[in-house]
Amino acid sequence: MSQIEQWQLSGNAAEMYERYVVPYALGPWAPGLVALAVLQPGERVLDVACGTGVVARLAAQKVGITGQVTGLDLNPGMLAVARALPPPPGAPITWVECSAVAMQLGDATCDVVLCQQGLQFFPDRSAALREMHRVLRPGGRLVLSVWKQANPYNTAVKAAVARYIGTEAAARLQAPTSLGNAEALRHLLVDAGFHDVHIRPHVMTIRLPPEEEFVLNHLASTPVADAVAALGEETRIALAREVRMALQSYVDGEGVTFPSEAHLATAHT
Q1: 3-class secondary-structure state, position 61
Q2: How much helix, strand and coil, in percent to the nearest 5, is found in the chain?
Q3: Which residue, 54, 97, 44, is CA-closest to 73?
Q4: With contact defined as beta carbons under 8 Å apart, do 38 and 63 qualify?
Q5: Strands (E), 12-156
């Protein structure tokens, strides 16, 4: 993400993101997104808002050693973690630091563009989609996902953050679900020049480890990490406990299990 976008991280937040957000919130969705792209050996793939690279690494395995994969993100901390992780078998991955609304890539240089849970963060979504269209070759394809609505965990966390930190901090966590309307997403894609647009709702069951420990580690991987760290220890414990109480109906053993909903969109140039 970017300094002008809504999910800029600092300090060790990117490492925490890879450790806590990727395995539980984004990693489970990545194989389905990549499968929907039906990647072929030798294809050139761009992963926009790649974060620490979970989608790009899967794509590299699919397109093989004759393919090319580029992971693009404006958050240098995310890219530093992506570069430090062991490279996957398959295509080499080039990590590029730049904005999704002004990509430093040539016209028609990609066969496939992937974007998992990134579009809703961009300051100008229409411009970002036009850039995705520009870098795709004629007949190229786009596969992206956005959350359909806040899941129970995120709803509980935002409420607790609003209570203990403030509404501005809570609003910074609201962006992930700010593009849940399928028709609005369809119009954005069509207006950017895409056709053959299909949007599919998907539901996945997510299981998190014990919340009182997980909540604070998760928040340490978000843009409100510094604000949470500035709280007193007792206040941080109270925040995490409030999240756990809000999720009582989803308790499953020591953790919680709940549904997570997303829209998966495909389109062609």
Answers
A1: helix
A2: 45, 25, 30
A3: 97
A4: no
A5: 44-48, 68-73, 93-97, 110-116, 136-147
CA–CA separation, 153 vs 265, rounded Å?
A: 24
Q: What is the largest CA-CA distance in the chain?
A: 57
Q: pTM higher than 0.85 for the full model?
A: yes
154-187 per-residue burial string, b: 16 or more CB within 10 A, e: under 16 = bbbbbebbbebbeeebbebbbbbbbbbeeeebbe
Q: In whole angstroms, what is the distance from residue 158 CA to residue 25 CA?
A: 16
CA dihedral of residues 171, 177, 182, 185 (deg, nearest 10): 70
Residue 242, both tokens: 């409030």
Structure tokens at 133: 């269209």
Burial 71-89, CB ≥16 within 10 A → b, else e: bbbbbebbbebbeeeeebe
| Sole residue written with tokens 């849940």 | 180
Report domain extents, the chain: 13-149+175-205+261-268
Query: What count of other Cβ atoms lies within 10 Å of the Cβ of residue 262?
Result: 23
| Residue 252, token pair as written in the block | 């499953």
Identity of residue 82 = A
Q: What CA–CA distance (Å, rounded) separates 266 from 99?
A: 22
- Please write the tens of the pLDDT for every residue from 152-204: 999 999 999 999 999 988 988 876 666 778 999 999 999 999 999 999 999 99
Residue 5 binned pLDDT confidence (cut-offs 50, 70, 90): very low
| Identity of the amino acid at 60 | A
Record: fold of 13-149+175-205+261-268: Rossmann fold (3.40.50)
Residues 174, 205, 148: CA angle, nearest 5 degrees:
35
* One-letter amino acid of 107: D
Other CB atoms within 10 A of residue 16 CB? 20
